[in-house]
Amino acid sequence: MANGQMKSAASLLMVLNFCMYTILLGIGGWAMNRAIDHGFIIGPEFHLPAHFSPIYFPMGNAATGFFVTFALIAGVVGIASILAGFDHYRSWDATSRPAAVSSALIAWALTVLAMGFAWKEIELEGRNTRLRTMEAFTIILSATQLVYVAALY
């Protein structure tokens, strides 16, 4: 009975996390595209600004570049962990569990890292609605991914 409850909890969390990681990747992709399109253009006659950062984002604040970069990495690894979890869900035996749990744990660790940059971005203020949404999804995902790891284990 408990095994069936864990399986249904894991499937619910898989769907929830998949949707949230997909939204995180969508907003992160928008932010990265905007940063590439509207970033610094340095030519031979131009000099770097005094506080130049190679991770410059025209919206947000000083933490935005780090937050978006790590959120994108966490999103891709999170989607991969969901795929490994789906494989485990189909068989639900001891042979597929280590791959699902380890990939989910790595995704959770990267999500927590991105969450740290989200908190720094919140502290520095000056960001738009899309970045606030991305921060909220990252913070929520750090909790739901941890519960997902526990359900798989």
Automatic annotation (TrEMBL):
One matching Pfam family is AWPM-19
This protein's superkingdom?
A: Eukaryota
**Sorted alphabetically, which keywords does the UniProt record give?**
Membrane, Transmembrane, Transmembrane helix
Residue ranges annotated as transmembrane are 12-32, 62-86, 98-119, 131-151
UniProt KW rRNA processing keyword: no
According to the record, the signal peptide region is none
What is the protein name stated in its UniProt record?
AWPM-19-like family protein
Q: From which lineage does this chain's organism come?
A: Eukaryota, Viridiplantae, Streptophyta, Embryophyta, Tracheophyta
